[in-house]
């Protein structure tokens, strides 16, 4: 697996997913129909074109179901594939292959969809000095996998959780009465040198954040024209992140404004799945 993923984590996720599908009884359909000695060869075939992600997870699914299964990958993780591409072959017990099939395909479909959508966003802003970033809008329990898929697609991982980066948002600011109060309280309780990002709603809040020396300023739901004006005003004194309402139709216009980062919730919460199927030879 990619070094960015903890192997213990993804093995546990696979085990949870298999438990969800097989329960205590296992695959009662195959068990009632197929004899133990029946063997098969199978291919995992792409029904979509895009970037493939999740091959090591699929392999782990087959391993956990039956360590006697032989899994052979035929493409590399992150590789661009076409409709009809055979990405892997599996050989061994037919019952075991069919028991693992759906869980393996679920991981492949979901993660490949995220990687593919991310790559589309990255391609849309090609030529501009901006990075496409993900958000915390992930499916519970799957955040490491989803952020891993974003990175495969060329995206940048934003903070992983609430614990590893400071982002002062509108509700924090409303709760304490203003940008200055929020930033000063944060600095009083953080280690020296900790980077602070602040979400601002208007020019006045942006000016206050600049005066306080905030390192990153989030422009949430600003128009591209307004963002361009803020880029000129900030003049490199802070990094600017565009957020809110970003889609493939407007991301290039946003990039043209000159912001440094564009965060896109859609990458993880709404990426269309790629299609894969398992076919017995």
Descriptive account of the structure:
With 281 residues, the protein is of the alpha/beta class. It folds into 2 domains: 7-116 and 272-280, Quinolinate phosphoribosyl transferase, N-terminal domain (Aldehyde Oxidoreductase, domain 3, Alpha-Beta Complex), CATH 3.90.1170; 123-269, TIM Barrel, CATH 3.20.20.70. 43% of the residues lie in helices and 19% in strands. It has helices spanning 7-22, 28-33, 55-65, 94-124, 143-152, 170-176, 179-189, 203-211, 224-234, 251-256, 266-269; strands spanning 39-46, 50-51, 70-73, 80-81, 86-93, 131-133, 166-168, 196-200, 216-220, 239-243, 261-263, 276-280. The strands form 3 sheets. Strands 6-11-10-9-8-7 form a 6-stranded parallel beta sheet. It has a 4-stranded antiparallel beta sheet with strand order 3-5-1-12, with helices on one face. The protein has a two-stranded antiparallel sheet with strand order 2-4. Helix 8 (203-211) links the parallel strand 8 (196-200) and strand 9. The longest helix is centred in the middle third of the chain and has 31 residues, at 94-124. The radius of gyration is 23 Å and the shape is elongated.
